[in-house]
Design goal:
Layout: H1 2-19, E1 23-24, E2 32-34, E3 43-44, E4 49-54, E5 58-60, E6 66-70, E7 73-74, E8 81-83, E9 95-98, E10 109-114, E11 118-121, E12 125-129, E13 132-133, E14 139-142, E15 144-145, E16 154-157, E17 163-164, E18 168-173, E19 178-180, E20 184-187, E21 193-194, E22 199-201, E23 213-218, E24 228-233, E25 237-240, E26 244-247, E27 253-254, E28 259-262, H2 298-316
Antiparallel strand pairs: 1-3, 2-4, 4-6, 5-8, 6-7, 9-10, 10-12, 11-14, 12-13, 15-17, 16-18, 18-20, 19-22, 20-21, 23-24, 24-26, 25-28, 26-27
Length: 317
C-alpha cells in the first residue's frame, strides 16, 4: 500500500512538472506577425495565450489568430493571410485602365490611358496599398485647338469661341477668287487644325486663239477657274491635242491649247506592169528545104574540121 501510494505521488509530481513547462516564442505562418508585448518575450509560461495579425497589405482569409501554450506546446495556428485585393480601379471617362501586372492585389499598379484626342490631367499610375488605391483618379480632358487662321479674300465657318478635337471648319473664297488647297480643316489631337489653311487666288485664263478651229461649246470670256471649252478643226484640218481644255488654278489651259494641222493628201503608189513577150513558134515543113531538117548539124561541122587538121599534118610530114 505504501509503495503504491508513493508511485502515484511520483507520477502526479511528474504530471504537475510537465504541465508547468514553459513554451518558446511561437513562429507564425506566412505574412503574419506576433501581436502586442508577446513579440518582446522569448519564453511563455504554461497557459499563455498569444495572437497573430496579418502583415501590412495582407488580410485574414480564415482561421483563428490565437494559440495557447499547454505543457510546453503551442496549439495549432489556423490563421491564413492573403494579399489584399483593391478591386477594379475607378472608371475614367474618355479613358481606359490598364493593369501592367495583370491583377489588382497589394503592390500591383493601375495605369490610366486617355482616348485619342484627350489629355491626362493628374497622376497616370496608382498603386494598390493597404488602404486601397493611392491618389485621386485622373481626368481625361478633350484637346482644344486655337482659332483657325484667317485668309485673304476668304472666310471660314462655323465661328466658335472654342474648337475641340475633331471639330471641322470649311473655308470659302470671296469676290470670285478660287480656293487653292483643302476646303475642310479638322482639329487634330496635337491641338492644331490639319491640313494647313488654303489660299484664295484670282484666276483668269486668256481666251485661246486656235487658227483653223471653231468653237463648239463651253465658257465665254472671262474664263475663271474650272471653266472649259471644246473646239473642232475646220474641214481639211486635223486636231493635234485635246479638243476640250480647262482653266486651272495657275490661270493656264490644261492639258494645253491644241492645234489644227492641215491634212496631208493621200499619195497613190505607182503600179508596176509586167509585159511578157511570147516568141512565135516556128513550124517545120518536111518538104520545105529551109526547115530544120535541112540545116547543117553541128556534129557534121566537127567531123569536117577534124579531117582537115589530119590532112594538114600528113602533108607536113
Amino acid at each position: 500500500m505504501g509503495v503504491t501510494a508513493l508511485l502515484l505521488l511520483s507520477f502526479l509530481g511528474l504530471a504537475i512538472i510537465a504541465q508547468a513547462q514553459d513554451c518558446s516564442k511561437p513562429i507564425g505562418g506566412p505574412n503574419m506577425y506576433l501581436k502586442g508585448d508577446a513579440i518582446l518575450q522569448n519564453t511563455f509560461p504554461d497557459g499563455s495565450k498569444v495572437s497573430f495579425s496579418c502583415n501590412t497589405g495582407y488580410t485574414p482569409a480564415g482561421g483563428s489568430s490565437s494559440i495557447t501554450c499547454t505543457a510546453g506546446t503551442w496549439s495549432r495556428l489556423s490563421l491564413v493571410c492573403e494579399r489584399k485585393n483593391c478591386g477594379a480601379y475607378p472608371e475614367v471617362e474618355n479613358g481606359n485602365v490598364d493593369y501592367p501586372k495583370g491583377d489588382t492585389l497589394y503592390g500591383d499598379t493601375a495605369k490610366v490611358i486617355c482616348n485619342q484626342g484627350y489629355n491626362l490631367v493628374g497622376q497616370a499610375e496608382s498603386r494598390c496599398d493597404d488602404q486601397g488605391w493611392t491618389g485621386r483618379p485622373p481626368v481625361c480632358e478633350v484637346t482644344t485647338c486655337d482659332t483657325p487662321k484667317t485668309i485673304t479674300n476668304g472666310t471660314y465657318d462655323p465661328l466658335k469661341e472654342q474648337y475641340t478635337f475633331r471639330d471641322v471648319v470649311r473655308y470659302t473664297c470671296l469676290n470670285d477668287n478660287a480656293l487653292n488647297g483643302a476646303p475642310l480643316l479638322t482639329c487634330s489631337e496635337d491641338g492644331n487644325f490639319q491640313p494647313g489653311p488654303p489660299t484664295c487666288v484670282w484666276v483668269d485664263c486668256k481666251n485661246p486663239t486656235i487658227p483653223n478651229a471653231e468653237f463648239v461649246e463651253g465658257s465665254r470670256p472671262p474664263h475663271r477657274f474650272s471653266a472649259s471649252i471644246t473646239y473642232r478643226c475646220l474641214p481639211g484640218f486635223e486636231m493635234n491635242g485635246a479638243s476640250t481644255i480647262t482653266c486651272n488654278i495657275a490661270s493656264q489651259w490644261s492639258p494645253g491649247i491644241p492645234q489644227c494641222i492641215k491634212k496631208t493628201p493621200a499619195t497613190s503608189r505607182p503600179t508596176t506592169t509586167t509585159t511578157t513577150t511570147k516568141k512565135p513558134s516556128v513550124t517545120t515543113d518536111p518538104k520545105d528545104p529551109s526547115g530544120d531538117a535541112h540545116q547543117t548539124k553541128p556534129w557534121i561541122i566537127g567531123v569536117v574540121v577534124n579531117i582537115a587538121v589530119l590532112l594538114v599534118q600528113l602533108y607536113l610530114v
